[in-house]
Amino acid sequence: MAALTDQELQGKTVEFKQLLENGQTLDDILPQAFAVVREASKRVLGMRHFDVQLIGGMVLHQGRISEMKTGEGKTLVATLPVYLNALKGEGVHVITVNDYLATRDSDWMGQLYRFLGLSVGLIVHGLDSDERRRAYNSDITYGTNNEFGFDYLRDNMAVNPAQVVQRNLNFAIVDEVDSILIDEARTPLIISGAADKPTDLYYTMAKIVPKLIKDIDFTVDEKAHTVLLTEEGVAKVEKMLNVGNLYDDTHMELSHHLNQALKAHGLMKRDKDYVVKDGEVVIVDEFTGRLMFGRRYSDGLHQAIEAKEGVKIERESQTLATITFQNYFRMYKKLAGMTGTALTEEDEFRSIYGLDVVVIPTNRAMVRDDMSDVVYKTEGAKYRAVVEDVAKRHAVGQPVLVGTISIEKSEMISSLLKKKGVPHQVLNAKFHDKEAEIIAQAGRINSVTIATNMAGRGTDILLGGNPEILAQNELRKRGLAEEEAEAEYNKLVEHFRGQCVEERNRVVELGGLHIIGTERHESRRIDNQLRGRAGRQGDPGSSQFYISLEDDLMRLFGSDNIAGLMNRLGMEEDMPIEAGIVSKSIETAQKRVENRNFDIRKHVLKYDDVMNKQRELIYEQRRKVLTSENMAENIQETIATVWVARWKSMPPKVFTRKSGIWPACWSMPPSYTCPIMI
Predict the structure, then answer these.
(1) Separation CA 167–CA 151 (nearest Å)
(2) C-alpha angle 72-75-77 in degrees, rounded to nearest 5
(3) What's the pLDDT tens digit per position in 111-142?
(4) Between residues 661 and 251, which one has the greater pLDDT?
(5) φ/ψ (deg, to 5) at 65
(6) Residue 154: enclosing H or E segment and its boundaries?
(7) Which of 155, 174, 355, 607 is disulfide-compatible with 349, CB 3.0–4.6 A?
């Protein structure tokens, strides 16, 4: 392929399409198609796929999950199966976790596809129906999981065929597949309309609940995520509301509102589960730390939180259409995924989606030093140790990335570092817009970055800095016109490239990027994602988790043995334990939580499968009504089916063809001719 001219290379697309029309399969042309993409990428993007990336591409084409470490180039890997499968003209969807990545990848990789004669579409928030239809009719469509799911629901609410935007669901490659198919699997997509329920009760309950005393009037079970009133609490509430029996049938609405208010006060924590932004309660994704605009908790919980925070309560809504990601993605003819962390969840991928996980070897050997966890007795001691470690490394210039599991904790560490005089950047849901920019520069000399749940996935941390983003920042400062900016950009990239290479060499001497985890997450994958930010492409790096017995995971799932050991040894508050046995104990706790969460997701899926059968049937009939010119045949078929079902359910003596006896419940005159008798 390298010997071909650009024109001859581009002509291969037409040649491949003809081979497919003549009966060859995608597998038959795979080696040549992959070679064409590899050569075209070298010419258009200046990147040539590594051999391990070709393996990753083959795994994706087979409809499997390709686990590739951070920095191994998953974005480029996807171009191989995407090009190959797009040749059939049935559409390929590349699904990412946010609009930024979808836009970046469609622009960046789109150059390669367009060079080879394929069309590329992008589905992001704010497009109208015509723009969406054009994007879906492209050979390759990039977009976010939410947008694809909502378009499916909207298509099945359309009142004329012109409003339908999606084609048949052919082949999807899901980027960060663990995040979309597992972390978000419990959250259904819901299209809702306004309901006419009053909001006064939410305010009433928001005044009552703070007067109740925890462990006396109500108990909180953080493991089961439930809040329950005690008998004393029930009596107190009945007195305050002036009702005889709170659990009487006539007071069902009162008890429901009270339960949601208790949940809002007892379980939902500000700056961890949600933030208040511009007078609105916005949910924070527990796995990525990103704000989820437009998403609302169901069953009145969101309104209860709004009442708790004293912001305007939005009217309750009623569900018009809903689907889970589990059932949406199972509708694709072929599904594949890629991520850096999937192996720990292989059982779930296999049992729910029929996907297995293939671990792709790294292009260069991984040399990151993953140190044993350090465990402290109290949270205060742990954070003091973290700040000391950061300050020590910052003093010599080593870049440090500190991972937290909530906005609240990231802001607390930030204030401790300020007191210590350590300059740093904070990346959490409150600074969502600067995500890529902050994370791309986290590998520079002296940089200290605090990130919540490793937001910024999809952006590489380059040791020494990213020259392209440095150039973009410089252009923004200068405020140049578009024509001037284009010419200046290339000069600035070259200028910063030299600077970044020098800086990289110094960072490598210092041991590369150091990762500090300030708490273990419920899921091992999230911890592995944080660790995976260091040591990309054979870079040096190190990682260590700081844990206290007061952390949620330890408190709820596994600190008894370790606490006993610390007490027996008579250890001081600021004296840590650092041993492999501790890390194993923590991993066992995480496995227990992961299994519990898997059971919850399986349970949700069982319920949704029942709804899914109904949804498929109704949507299929709806589509027939929408697209058929004459429904007479369909209606006659339905009538015949109902007659057969009723006839089969009747005792043989009651109804026979000769007797003409009609059961009264059919309420049809004897003169009527049953379709099954014709």
Answers:
(1) 11
(2) 70
(3) 999 999 999 999 998 889 999 999 999 999 99
(4) 251
(5) -100, 130
(6) helix 145-155
(7) 355
Q: Are 502 and 530 in contact (CB under 8 A)?
A: no
For 607-642, write each residue's pLDDT tens digit: 888 888 998 889 988 888 888 777 787 788 888 888
| 6-190+325-359 and 196-315 have identical folds | no
Residues 308, 126: Cα–Cα separation, whole Å: 31
Side-chain-side CA neighbours of residue 540 (13 Å) = 12
Could you read off the pLDDT of 36-73 as tens digits, one per residue?
999 999 999 999 999 999 999 999 999 999 999 877 88
Structure tokens at 306: 């709004």
Task: Give CA angle at 397 (546, 73), nearest 5°.
Answer: 75
In 372-481, where does DSSP find H-type helix?
A: 379-396, 407-420, 435-440, 467-478
Measure CA of the first residue to CA of the last residue in the chain; give whole Å.
67
Q: What is the pLDDT at residue 657? A: 47
The residue that leads in pLDDT, 675 or 513, is 513
Q: Which two tokens stand for residue 194?
A: 């306004």
**CATH architecture group of domain 196-315:** Alpha-Beta Complex (3.90)
Of 565, 192, 239, give the one whose Cα is nearest residue 377. 565
For residue 359, with 0-12 CB atoms within 10 Å meaning exposed, 13-18 middle and 19 or more buried, which class applies? middle
d(CA 466, CA 469): 6
Report domain extents, the chain.
6-190+325-359, 196-315, 369-463+512-600, 632-677
What does 556-591 look like in DSSP terms, one character per residue?
HHT-HHHHHHHHHTT--TTPPEE-HHHHHHHHHHHH
Average pLDDT on 322-346 reads 89
Q: 53-68 in b/e burial notation, b at 16+ Cβ within 10 A?
A: bbbbbbbbbebbbbbb
Residues near 336 by beta carbon (within 8 Å), at least 6 away in sequence:
59, 60, 61, 62, 63, 64, 65, 66, 81, 171, 172, 173, 174, 355
CA 375 to chain centre: 30
Residues 97 and 457: beta-carbon distance below 8 Å = yes
Query: Which pLDDT does position 656 carry in this prediction?
Result: 47
Fold classified for 6-190+325-359: Rossmann fold (3.40.50)
CATH number for the domain formed by residue range(s) 369-463+512-600:
3.40.50.300
Tally: H helices and E strands in the chain: 25, 22
Joined tokens for residue 21? 């029309």
d(CA 44, CA 116): 10
